[in-house]
């Protein structure tokens, strides 16, 4: 539908209604008024086959020539007019008001012409030749002839005409022999300017289609399993090429009719091809195997292409082209309605898009029939394509998002199964420990040295098993995180590229010759699109931070346990965390209180891992007191306390703050992966989860929390000596 005007322009460039010849006593056409769109000169013409330069003179007596209406089809006129050079003459008299102004006359059709006004050559189109096969027909946007003001009362318009015939084209004899229109100059040039300006809408379609083609070709390259992306990309590419061809048809000046006909046939063929690829994309989206219907569409499409190339002037070509478009729409509706009835996931999105496109098509037909507004008609043309394309594109985007969500669910299932496996292993270890205890009671007679050796062996065995489990779990988590990171990088990269394209589009729009209202609306749309891209980039980076946290969570420490002075280690990381926060915010201050137990024994631990735990706890404590300080509470003094002590064969480290505290519900989830109370973008929720695993699984200790909402929070680490 959106290229219907292009095909119509090849078939009907002038009205086909006839006009009777003037009576013999009325050989002069009197013109007192010009319609707004110009006056078609139908009556008063006389013709004669042959070629004589004297026939251009205004004083030549043509009373013996026959009369005719040259706007009628060639096949209804004398055969001599279609076989060689002939002359047509018209005597006319302009009213006094018209003679005071310059006018324009534009003559031509499927042939070459020389137009003489009162014996003076005013217009030439094409190349005249006595052999119709050698005639070069007129092109697109020819220069009209001048009818100067102040001319004689009676004037003579003589046209030397040579018809154009092509052995490849069928139906040229259905076109008018000659159309001659008298224009007001301002109306003529404004009409041509509006026609070219209105074609700018095809550049919008070109940019939109090219962007969709690029994106979906890239999506198909990344995920070949979703073949609908390939077919939809071909649909968008065909639409982009057709839009470019339509823009050229309405803006370029063609010296000859041949290239224009080739471009018109190619443009309309590409426009029809969009329907084929749209249907094929729906087959792929809804998992429908193409059958005889789709094959039949290709067969009809081939016939349409032949008709467009060889018989563009036949009415059957227009009906066949329009019928093929109706078949495409019918098949798309059939597939969409079938998918909606089968409750296919997301099928309603495509249905809404096609319904919007159908409403736009109906609106275009109504606007075109009533000739209400060219701008409204162009917007309907945009809506016909854009709404259908957005429906399919949004459906594919939703499928991508749902697949990503399913991947997250599977990841959670893997983590649950991993936790279940670890629990089972722990049960097995507990059972093995019970059996070992029974064996120890049976071998009490062994020496102390043997007992110590056995104890060390068990500890080494438990540590090795734990390392192997953590290594396996880490490899699994790291692999999943890497798989997520690859498409995530793709999303972030193309989001940034799309943002740059939006900026380039805004720069091009700033220099485009568009009406102010259209330019403002397009600028606003591009700004909204740019803001959406910024949101995608922001949340993509946040997701990347989560993936990096997962990779860090899965990393295992290669170091072995060594005797560690916890007083020195804790004091060092307390100062380090405080100075780090101070470096970010110079206004932050907090009181540091330490209470280290003297003579605390060294504890076997991995210093780097334990330091990470302490650094995370101190950072959370400083964050909590900073948040309470920013609330502006009167008399509040932020304080972070650190203490160590020895309790029942264990060493305890306590980190206390008088910050915002936590509710019981938050305390119950605080050690879960990805759980955080911080605003979006300030935390991934993996810090305490990682710390919990390091203390409990890596060092055989405990990590607990006690908090009073709005008052304080205390984390306690216990490690075996």
From TrEMBL:
Enzyme Commission (EC) number: 2.7.13.3
UniProt KW Transmembrane helix keyword: yes
Reaction catalysed by this enzyme: ATP + protein L-histidine = ADP + protein N-phospho-L-histidine
A Gene Ontology molecular function term of the record: phosphorelay sensor kinase activity
Residues of the Histidine kinase domain: 479-721
Statement: the UniProt record of this protein carries the keyword Cell membrane: no
Keywords assigned by UniProt, alphabetized: Membrane, Phosphoprotein, Signal, Transmembrane, Transmembrane helix
Transmembrane portions of the chain: 201-219, 231-254, 260-286, 293-312, 347-367, 373-397
Domain of life: Bacteria
Gene3D superfamilies the UniProt entry points to: 1.10.287.130, Galactose-binding domain-like (2.60.120.260), Histidine kinase-like ATPase, C-terminal domain (3.30.565.10)
N-terminal signal peptide: 1-21
InterPro entries according to UniProt: Galactose-bd-like_sf, HATPase_C_sf, HATPase_dom, His_kinase_dom, HisK_dim/P_dom, HisK_dim/P_sf, Sig_transdc_His_kin-like_C
Pfam family, any one: HATPase_c
Protein name: histidine kinase
